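Known limitations

Structure tokens in this collection are predictions and should be treated as such. Users comparing against experimental data should check residue numbering before alignment. To illustrate the layout, the record for SMEK homolog 1 is reproduced below. The input appears on top and the generated tokens appear beneath it.
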Amino acid sequence: MTDTRRRVKVYTLNEDRQWDDRGTGHVSSCYVERLKGMSLLVRAESDGSLLLESKINPNTAYQKQQDTLIVWSEAENYDLALSFQEKAGCDEIWEKICQVQGKDPSVDITQDLVDESEEERFDDMSSPGLELPSCELSRLEEIAELVASSLPSPLRREKLALALENEGYIKKLLEIFHVCEDLENIEGLHHLYEIIKGIFLLNRTALFEVMFSEECIMDVIGCLEYDPSLSQSRKHREFLTKTAKFKEVIPISDPELKQKIHQTYRVQYIQDMVLPTPSVFEENMLSTLHSFIFFNKVEIVGMLQEDEKFLTDLFAQLTDEATDEEKRQELVNFLKEFCAFSQTLQPQNRDAFFKTLSNMGILPALEVILDILLINLIIEHMICDTDPELGGAVLLMGLLRTLVDPENMLATANKTEKTEFLGFFYKHCMHVLTAPLLANTTEDKPSKDDFQTAQLLALILELLTFCVEHHTYHIKNYIINKDILRRVLVLMASKHAFLALCALRFKRKIIGLKDEFYNRYIMKSFLFEPVVKAFLNNGSRYNLMNSAIIEMFEFIRVEDIKSLTAHVIENYWKALEDVDYVQTFKGLKLRFEQQRERQDNPKLDSMRSILRNHRYRRDARTLEDEEEMWFNTDEDDMEDGEAVVPPSDKTKNDEDIMDPISKFMERKKLKESEEKEVLLKTNLSGRQSPSFKLSFSSGTKSSLTSQSSTSNLPGSPGSPGSPGSPGSPGSVSKSTSQMAAITTKGGLVGLVDYPDDDEEDDEDEDKEETLPLSKKAKLESS
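Generated tokens:
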């Protein structure tokens, strides 16, 4: 059986004056060669790793508190504490520390906490102790002055504390308190207030244990009712005995636990309500009081957590339908306080605490308690956040995202549970989440467009976008059935750019799925219209909105989403055809025309596919040999009009095959020449920034105006070397312009960089650029 006497928790005091739990282990004391002295060692009970290695320094002040705590400072602003499971273990280690420092183990502190000045040390050397006045009613003023004069000096505070401990002085003072109250001696009660307040500022655990004992604590609180700065005394005892009544909703069988709960509540009340707010100089003088409360709460949580019968009864009554509402309310209040106490635990201990509650059945209990769904409660709190910056709403949105993330759902043998939960969420909760969105998008523009509303809608869109990516089936049905995308795109008319971009990001996520159900929904409802309108209203401004919209259309082009390509060109080409500072829309038009060609000549399309597949299957070395043979063939050796066919393909030289292919190649050459001319013009003239204005409003005919103006950018037509000047690109002859278009195609200036229209064309052009000039001439002449 494990020795529990030496079982401890290691704590360090952080910058916020809160104790951080560093782990649980077993403490020992031994000589450490590296530290050259006796040291305290704590090894973790989980893996045996070293949690603490601290040399017992002869001049370090160690304090023993509450019989199970040892506290000391390793260095400035670095405090340590060992919390023992058993008093015997604490006493054993305390004796070791006192032995090293040559102190009597009966003391609770081994050294003075703060060094005194030389003068104070000299003055106090002659007096071994502090003599207190006799505890009488007539000498209360003298006692109050002595306490007040001792507080500024740490050494005098120490001597005063020892005198109060040794003579049982506090209990004598409390007896005088009863006499003063009976005689209604207000002056004496004011002196007792100052005396008891001063004793608190001595910051001494041994004194706290006397003051907070069952027989003394209410009298201590009574003394603190008579503040001389107040015209009337406070009624703290009346509140604690009559208003704040202790209720055992579940009987507590352990008397020690029950006494600890009473004590902690009253001490917390003293700290929060009775004692005056400490000044800057007094704040650190109450650190031991904070520690007393902290470790009491840790101990209470631990004792309750280990009492399985208590927790079992608690959750059984919470879930029992026969439990009346008043009783259930009391059980819930206890559970609330229990969880509040757990906040004193460190993260790893809190995790274990909530795991225990989960195992005991807290979730079914909460389900019975709540009249409405917990998720809807979270959503409503998020929507109703009154903070202008929506700080609480952001945190709640993060919580919702965690709840609906399939990756966070526990894997079970029954894989349908995730689907069931998501089905439940979309049936009972999604309408609550989207209510602000639907209420604000009933017209062509947002009905409310203030900053706080825009922030809230942006949060909702962020979660909806997450759902599009991770929920697929459920969110798709919801979007299509509720026409959510149309409502979202209304927000592109918002004056807040971040909200308009959130709406665009939502649509971009949908398009990125390349799902034909979504695509048909978009085309049927003409849901590119708000995007095109926003693009044209943005004009020639080179901003995030401009780039994001172009990127969306570029994705459609590169991924060759045929249905959306055809829809965009057939319905919006007139509005977009003059946008030539990027090649995205012209590239879409080319894709569209290629689709039409394939539809008009399906036989040609199938043969080209066959030839392409055959080409890719050939060995790379064979292909290189055939190309080398072709390039080595002199033009004069070839008959006019003779088709050049590699030897491996000669068997396919059939009239039925070659006739449509010849026609296709003629059309392709014609198109390539047209494209090269367009590219050459664009390259020579620089980037143009046309201004667009398109009206989609009802009752007026759609009008489009284009004003092409050259940009005065470096290298633009407005800079030196403009067309027509000597040596400018405008003077290039027609015979060399085609070559220029081919070799400088990659140098186009645009908002979006994207690969060329056809990967095969890229490969051919790369090869062409590496050829000797004579071979390039062959290609051009062909």
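For this record: The chain is about 55% helix and 10% strand. The first helix runs from residue 87 to 101. Please report discrepancies through the issue tracker.
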